[in-house]
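[Q] Does anyone have a clean structure-token version of this?
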Amino acid sequence: MKMSLDWESLDGETFTQGRKNPVITDRAKVRGGWFVLVRHYGIPDVVATSGAFFYPDPEHKWDGNSLH
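[A] Here you go.
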């Protein structure tokens, strides 16, 4: 069985000391919540760091913005 994720980019910009950081965050709806992928680019077009995590949200109410 082949499975695929439908990725959705989250809009948002992050800044450090007044400079824009090249951070891209995407999410995919999965059973019980969201699978989130975060990538930070260093040298143009080269991923410097990345991470992924599961965000529990059974009703998929999270709109992608900060929860604070």
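[Q] Thanks! Anything notable?
[A] The longest strand covers residues 47-56.
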